[in-house]
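Reviewer 2 asked us to include a model.

Predict the structure of this chain.
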Amino acid sequence: MMIVTSRMWLTSLVYFLTFATMTKSKPIPIRCTETGATDLLAISLAESVHFPIGVEVTQDKGVSGYRFDPEAKLLGVDASEVMTNCVYFPTEFSIIVTFKKQHRRNENEFLLTLLGQDRRTILLAVRLQRDRLHFDYVSGSLDVRETASLRSDRIVDGKWHTIVITVTQSNVKFTLDCLTSINENLEEPFPTKLNTQGSRFHIASRRRRRNRFTGLLRQVKFVPGADASIHLCSKPETNMFPPWLGAAKADTIPSLPGTATVQIDHQDETRSCDATNEGQLLYKPSVGHLQMCEGERWKRFATKPEKLDYIVDFSDLITKSKTFDVEVFSIEGEGLFLAFANQGRNRSMDSTIYKWDESRKVFYHHQSIKTDTARDWEFFTIENEHFLAVANQGNDENSPSAKSVIFKWERRRRLFVPFQYIQTMSARCWKSFQIDDKHYLVVANYAGARGQREKSWVWVWEPFQRIFSKYQSLDTIGAYDFEYFKIGSNHYLAAANSYDGFRTNVDSVIYHWRLSNFVPLHYVETSGATDWEHFSISGRHFLAVANYYNTTSGINSYVADSVVYEVGPARNQFTKIQTIPTHGALDFEFFTVGRDSYLVAASSSDSNKNHISTVYRWQGVEQFVPVHNISTGPCADWEQFTSNQGEHYLVSANVNSRISKVLQLLTY
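Predicted model (structure tokens):
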């Protein structure tokens, strides 16, 4: 018989209560669908007893938001705090993000990430890059990251925006400010069993000091099992604040002047915009535009997609000598630049960099850089550092060897300075790309000691040594250009082979990234290929090759048709869908205006010095149809850019003279 004393009973009770409260119930292996809407930003800010150091509360026209210092504490919340008693992430959910971002950046900026138990694997992420918002997620195999994207110039216009990302396993919908909604089929469905045990949400970062979000953040909400845009966009506006901006408390956010009524202007009259009618909405039925008075100007919201009307001559740009390439790029906090690759002799060898003045709408000379018969510029960013690589052909015809240079942006002087010299062989092109968080550069070597059968090289960035080193050689023949592109989880590199020393009709090669190297995947018949251009239209992927010169069957002519291929679902399926008449084509440029897609070829050689370049518009089953002819003279390159005010421009590089042109695309 066992006798239990009062002391034994009390000790047993304390032991039981202590360990029972310490033992949590294990989460059930089911999908998290019953969790309500959760403000991840608010929970992350409240995780500390004191307000986090390095986080600043800012008000912009009555709307409060949070700005994160680059050295601020990394904010986040464990997934288990949001999804309790369950482990699998829902396959149907919405993410609501309200933010303000003013300048485009080539570098990724993460607004939200869900990192796995190892604190490195990205299970889910929302990030900004230039004028695109990307939604990343791991595939069903949990080893490949998939991406769906929304592209809009409004994302980085310095105004408040709310984007609702709604996922329903095989489909994603982006809703921007309750005005526009875009659906996209996911190439790989969202995983049905995404285990969240040990994972953590991170706000405005990916748990690293770099790639942080540099704008203002107002709300980051997670809503499982529902399309949040249906509920959000059906709410009425109160106190001039649209519902998608997030709840606005009357005691903390002042009211704005003006009213929310919409006036209709049938006469297209010019109306003043000042403090007396700030916030006033004005609708013009003749053009389908909705405008709002903001400050001293009317800001337009496109209620129907922009359409390209016609193209006008905007300005001339004078360079040191003729130009083979122009590179358009932006630097955060500095603005937009044009780098011209100039080819001259002796003192006219310098290449020219121009900077855009947004207020005056002009380009002005910013910097001259010493180059050696420059053929190409390539701008890229690694972490927070900006680089500009020049492909130098060299001026000595008897020796194709020349040093190409990588320049680095020096913030204090606001100039590019030499960073690394790389030996190249009559280099024609640089191309930068990123695979699995590693940065690469590939150079197209046109000719060397073995003639045109000179190897081109892939270089990799060494983060500890802070230099590029040789990574892989590629067999090329008169290499003129490289184009990197990604479809789903597959990485590709297209090489434009132009000349073997005797003829221009040589095969160009498309490489596929496999086991940390590029391997030949497909050979394409080309005629003096000088450029590859990858683009996508309505989920379909295309490759256009610019053919410069034709030597088929004894024909020696600059009249050489360029070709558009469609990349099929199978990796080695490249189908020729259209030929485009060109004369000495050196470049293709793809761009969009509104919902329309365009392709323009840079034609450089024929007897007509006022040579015509043709702009083609994609028209579905009709494919690319000519819609505009541009007289700019022999052209080596086209580049398109959009100003912060939403105006579209084309820049041409004149291959025969010092005068290159900027053209404006007028829309309605």
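Confidence is low (pLDDT under 50) at residues 1-27, 237-241, 247-262. The first strand starts at residue 28 and ends at 31. We have added this to the supplementary material.
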